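User: Predict the structure for this protein chain, please.
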Amino acid sequence: MADTPNRTTYTVESLLAVTVQVFNARGYDGTSMEDLSRAAGISKSSIYHHVRGKEELLRLAVGRALDGLFGILDEPAAVDGRPVDRLEHVVRRTTEVLLAELPYVTLLLRVRGNTGTEQWALERRRDFDHRVAELVKEAVTAGELRADVEPRLATRLLFGMINSIVEWYRPDAPHADGVAEAVARLAFDGLRA
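Assistant: Here is the predicted structure, written as structure tokens:
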């Protein structure tokens, strides 16, 4: 009986992990199916066995990031309690999701609206931001956050701080632990009324 070569069996999930790395390195527009097949070590036809094409891979990847973020808004601590406590939970958990899904969130933050999938992702991001801005507004109205910072501006500043993590965070760095807590502390020490 002859030995058969050890071939990696790809699932959509494992293919997606490779795809996200390539998209983040080369950009979505700069990545071809040939690039993806080379990076995965499989033929293009093997990729097409799992998905219809590059845009479906993009939708799956940014969808994973968006699902993680929207899931936060349904967590009990994001739904019940004082608005400021709910907001602090959302900020802390958004940071945790970003860290846990770093390549996927990085890709989400880099979409520009050049395809239908990118436009869909941008619309969902705007919806998420709007829902958080409403929570900021609730906390301001309740007197729990400073009233001298407009809620939409406060929301943009919060997400600017959180989203910038994709540029510098490395899981093996000495400061990797405690990032979510540091973000929440910095933000709410400055925002609380």
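Confidence is low (pLDDT under 50) at residues 1-6.
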